[in-house]
Design brief:
Length: about 400
Amino acid sequence: MSKRTIVTLPGDGIGRSVLDASIRVLTAAGFDANYVEGDIGWEFWKNEGNPLPERTLKLLKEHKIALFGAITSKPKDAAAAELDESLQNKGYVYSSPIVNLRQHFGLDICMRPCHTYKGNPLNFIRRGKGNEIEEPLVDVVIFRQNTEGLYSGIEWSDPPENVFQALKSHPKFEKNFGNIPKNEISISTRVFTKNAVERILTAAFEHAKKYNYKSVTVCEKPNVLRETSGMMYKMAMEIQSERYPEIELWNTNVDAQMMWLTKNPENYGVIVAGNLFGDIISDGFAGLIGGLGFACSAQYNPDSGVAVFEPTHGSAPKYADFPVSIVNPVAMIESSCMMLDFIGEEQKAKKIRSAVAAVIEEGKVRTYDMMKMSGTPDVLENGAASTSEMADAVIAKL
Ligand code: NAI
Ligand code: MG
């Protein structure tokens, strides 16, 4: 069988070091692939006025599967100031390459698993009934709609007249905002479409079915956001009763869910939400299992098969120029396991996950975050493992 080609998108900052560590682990686990690197990130913004060059889109279109590290994003004005002199004042406007990647390939399904590693000193603990310490076992998979909702980018400050008039045709707008000068109003719209909602719900239920989760929870706010959240919950009820009667459908409000986060996180299985709420609850659950060093994700389009696997964390610029990288590669390694599952290499993914779990449970090799140190270069002298030592420890367990 010919080797698979995987596009690597190291991006900025610590992206490259966690990606390199993951590829070493993949190779040691017997996953043999060609890796081709795609350009993405700040350097390409500064030098070309485009952080996601056309050639990178082409690569991904051809090979479909990418491992992505992280990128640096900066606000519009800061971005413009860093643009190469030859490109200044030529109409280049910075926009996030990740968001663009999602929109370009319609990567509308975002999946973020959060599960407890035994022995991780960062695990959430709480008091039980008899005041004893409990460490609940979290095993949650969040499905976040990734392309629309409040992140669809349809927003205005001082909206155009026709938009303002359209809004004024809504009695609530007319009553509460109709007298406010247009230039004092900023609006971000929350768009849900039936097709996208059906796709995210189906992905969530399918996952629950395949991996035997007993419940799917819609985590939105249908009592207030009656149109958008309401539509998702209503469609979830239909889909559940017609296609997945064996799976329980639960409904929580996002605010209450955050309050219950630490009360009974072990009760939840698959959770599905729109873009913003999905982003928030997945960070919330990630905090229970060790935070950014452990939070992995996949974003994919089930029709085209284009999929990008990446840690949830960013480029951590503070740490980018350390002589030896100190950041935790587990989130990236777990993201590459999600890639293996996606392309039908589940056995190799399982092997790697067991090795990661064994390293964490043994507790001899820990990155600085697991030792609750603040991230300075001297953590290595003080007993923390470097990024590559953590990868070596995983490889040794394979
Ligand atoms: P960040 O995730 O880069 O870092 C926040 C803090 O989390 C770090 O200072 C570090 O203490 C910790 N951390 C992150 N990754 C870690 C790891 N693997 N191991 C151990 N500790 C880790 O977020 P921040 O500082 O808000 O953003 C930095 C840049 O990254 C910004 O330009 C931002 O726009 C971008 N960003 C990119 C994302 C992406 O590429 N998907 C996601 C989030 C932020
Ligand atoms: Mg986030």
